Each structure stands twice: as structure tokens, then as C-alpha cells.
Amino acid sequence: MSKENQSIEALHQRETEFHDDWATSEALEDIEVHALFEGLCAIENQFIIQDMGNLQGKKILDVGAGLGESSTYFALQGAEVTYNDISPKMGELAQALAAHHGTSIKTVITPAEKMTFEADTFDFIYCANLMHHVPPEEQEDWIANMHHFLKKGGKLYTWDPIKYNPVINVYRRMATEVRTIDEMPLGFDILKLYRKYFTQVSHREFWLSTLYLFLHYYLIKRYNPNKVRYWKRIYKENNKTIGWWFKPLRALDSALLKLPLVRRLAWNMVVVAVK
Predict the structure, then answer these.
(1) Average pLDDT rounded to a whole number, residues 69-82
(2) Based on the structure, what is the number of domains in the chain?
(3) By C-alpha distance, which of 134, 269, 275, 135 is closest to 200?
């Protein structure tokens, strides 16, 4: 085995162990499903689900799906869902979550880069916070595989953190115990790889002034960033808790993030790629 392959295998092992540990720490009843797509702070997913439209009968591959909230949500909307994750314990938890909500999903436990499906299998591929875990040397192969798995006219939806915002970069240096050491936020140069394989590629950025929520958690709520996963905690918020100030900031972001240079300071980027 080459040194490069050894390095990638070691990365996969670290990711598996980290996410197995995370899965065993979660209580089923505490996992948000509807809030992940319908809640006040579900900005990215509201955009994606609106673009997807009616999911009844659609075949969806949910890549790097973790706790299984998104897979369960899609299944509840009538989709035929294939769940993927690197962690066996995450897969077990995702199956239990789906059953808890009265639905079911198929599970495939393997690194995303090693998945194998027939060509033209899926209507949609959804991938949240996974691409920045894929080793840079494997990103192009990963995108090519996703293109292969999609039906003609199908869509790949990915969303990940981008690397330019100083607030998020400080947070990442602080929250070392709730994320893996191999994560690497993306730059806009990643779009070149999508455009190499897909006929249409668009992107939209989210969270700028609304990132005040992270400061609110740290300075006012005093949430320890190594005990509370801020990016998960946001889905527990609602109109009563933060709506009075979050909604105006969200409206401000809608205007600010239309500006090409300003959008580089956003937290997350959603990419929609059409085959």
C-alpha cells in the first residue's frame, strides 16, 4: 500500500472512531428531524427542500448522513432513501431514528469515496457537511462518482463551511473536541471540479450577520464550544428564543450575500449541480 493510501486509510479510521463515539453519546429523543429542514435556523435546508420540490417516490442518496435526521425527513416526505455514512454506529442510530418516526431507510456503511452504485440510479444526492471531510486528492473522484450515480437531469446538493470567515475560524480553533482534526473548510476553487462534470452548477452562501448566534452562545449563554456542538444547537432555536433578532439579521444577510466579495465571508455554501 502506498503512503498516500495509508494516509487516507488512517483518516478513514479516525473519522469512523470519532463518529462512532458521537453516535453513542446521542439520545434518540433529542435528535431533531423536522427542525433540520423547517426550523428557524434551517436556512440551507429550506433553500434545498424548496428546490427539490415534491419528494414522493424520488430516489435519494444521503451521503455522510450522520445521525440520520435528513434521511428520516426525506423518507417521511415519501422518498426512497439510501443512507450512507462511514460510521457503523451512526448507521444503527439512523435506522433506529427512522423507525422511531414510523418510516424506514436503506443503509450503506462505507467511506463516501468508496460507494458503488449503478449509473443513473438516483434523482437527488444530498450531502451536508461532508465534502470538507473528503481528502483533497479524492474530491474530484468523489464528484465524478456522484455524477455517475445520478439520473440525467438529477441534482447533487452539497453544503459545507467555507474557509474565509474569521469568526468561524476562531470558533474552529476553540472547538477541537467536537470536530475531527482532518476537516478542511472549502474555498470557491472547489466549484471548478463541479463544473468539470456537471452541465449546470450554481451556489448560494448563507450566514453572515446571523453568525452573531455563535457569539450569543459563547458570550451570553456561556456554552462551552467543546461540550455543545453549536452547529447542531441552532436547530433547537425558535421564534420565542431568538426570532426577534434573528429574523432581521437573516433579512440583512439576504441582501449582503448577493455581493460577490461579501459572500466570501459567509459560513456555509450550498452547491446545486445538475446532470
Answers:
(1) 98
(2) 1
(3) 275
